[in-house]
Design a protein that fits this description.
This protein is α/β, with parallel strands linked by helices. Helices cover about 40% and strands about 15% of the residues. Strand 12 (about 320-325) and strand 13 form a beta hairpin. The structure holds pyridoxal-5'-phosphate.
């Protein structure tokens, strides 16, 4: 199989698995237990917290471990409104992930004002709209980089426009791929996830700036300084630490590889698949994503393209979701002004540090054959 869907998830690295195994076998203690086995797990979790916090410019006390990006996003939004009473209104980008969109729909039903900040045709939030937002009681949540197109949002400019609002970013796709520093970006909250950087699924983190009176959304035991109840999954946290360390340490070389692959991909696509539109901006985008669509999408079937690629052994995706048996166009591409038909028939390639040149060549050949056959 040729795996070009690394924005969906990545392969667990061998060294990450090796780091995790002892914590699933002999060192299986509960980090809250007082005897030696528990204390050993506690030390490991706190070391991981220190290292991951350090990698994003945070203090360890500012980081809680969660089950991943979805939980961190839900927690920020819901706790900010309900448990912590920090926000009365929320602004989000029109191209946010469903883990932001759906909880805000829920909050809206219970009376919280929600604003959707529109994006331009390249997917960047319109700063002129942000400058008009009323800052009092406002939480603004804008993803650092988009999971479908790779567009990197101008977080510094957003902070400059809204110095008094609470600022959250979903950094799930960007962490480990581009430099990320919560101090430099003057963030109040940030969401991270391990499985997009060759770490395990089911673990992530939430950065909560020191001084914010943040109350738990998930309640139970006193773990994570009373900010997230639940027994810490030690092995997953250790895996997250190992993956994050490697991603940041090797960022330059990984980026160079991924950029070389996406540049080759773009040039081969342009040479061999006529009439395509690039939805990934050429500047200010992640090194690993190329999203294309077809202006003549009426003649093409998005689902069939992905299925035919699968038959060729190639895993790619698009942002369209299947809801009750029918394909819904990608809300990201629709927000960027694409037609519903075009937004249904997009293809997202997302490479990793391990993607080879020959995999890229095979994928483009397959897509070219599939689209040619469909058009004729
Ligand atoms: C931008 C973004 N946010 C949040 C998530 C959800 O993260 P997780 O799978 O860790 O819950 C994803 C995963 O696809 C994502 O791409």
């Amino acid at each position: 199989m040729i795996y070009l869907d690394n924005s969906a998830t990545t392969r667990l690295d061998d060294h990450v698995l090796e780091a995790m195994l002892p914590w699933m076998q002999g060192d299986f203690g509960n980090a809250s237990s007082v005897y030696a086995l528990g204390r050993k797990a506690r030390v490991a979790v706190e070391n991981a917290r220190e290292e991951v916090a350090h990698l994003i410019g945070a203090h360890p006390a500012e980081l809680i471990f969660t089950s991943g990006g979805t939980e961190s996003n839900n927690t920020v939004l819901k706790s900010a409104v309900h448990e912590s009473a920090l926000a009365r209104r929320i602004a989000i980008g029109a191209t946010e992930h469903h883990a932001i969109l759906h909880p805000t729909e829920d909050l809206n039903r219970t009376g919280t004002e929600i604003f959707h900040v529109p994006v331009d045709e390249q997917g960047f939030v319109r700063l002129s709209e942000i400058a008009n937002l009323k800052q009092e009681g406002l939480l603004i949540s804008i993803m650092y980089a988009n999971n479908e197109t790779g567009a990197i949002q101008p977080l510094s400019a957003i902070r400059e426009a809204l110095p008094d609002a609470l600022l959250h970013t979903d950094a799930v796709q960007s962490f480990g791929k581009i430099p990320f520093d919560v101090q430099a970006l003057k963030l109040d909250f940030a969401t991270l996830s391990a499985h997009k950087i060759h770490g395990p699924k089911g673990v992530g983190a939430l950065f909560i700036r020191k001084g914010i009176d943040f109350k738990a959304h998930q309640q139970g035991g006193a773990q994570e300084r009373n900010r997230r109840a639940g027994t810490e999954p030690v092995a997953l946290i250790i895996g997250f630490q190992a993956a994050a360390r490697a991603a940041v340490k090797e960022m330059e070389t990984r980026t160079a590889t991924m950029l070389a692959r996406t540049q080759l991909l773009r040039s081969l696509l342009e040479a061999s698949v006529p009439n395509i539109r690039l939805n990934t901006p050429l500047q200010n985008s992640l090194p690993n994503i190329v999203n294309i669509s077809f202006p003549d999408a009426e003649a093409l079937d998005g689902e069939a393209i992905l299925q035919s690629m699968d038959i060729h052994g190639i895993a790619v995706s698009n942002g369209s979701a299947c809801v009750s048996g029918s394909l819904q166009p990608s809300h990201v591409l629709v927000a960027m002004g694409r037609t519903d038909a075009e937004a249904k028939a997009a293809v997202r390639f997302s490479v990793s540090k391990d993607t080879t040149e020959s995999e890229i060549r095979s994928a483009v050949e397959a897509l070219s054959d599939i689209v040619t056959a469909m058009r004729s």
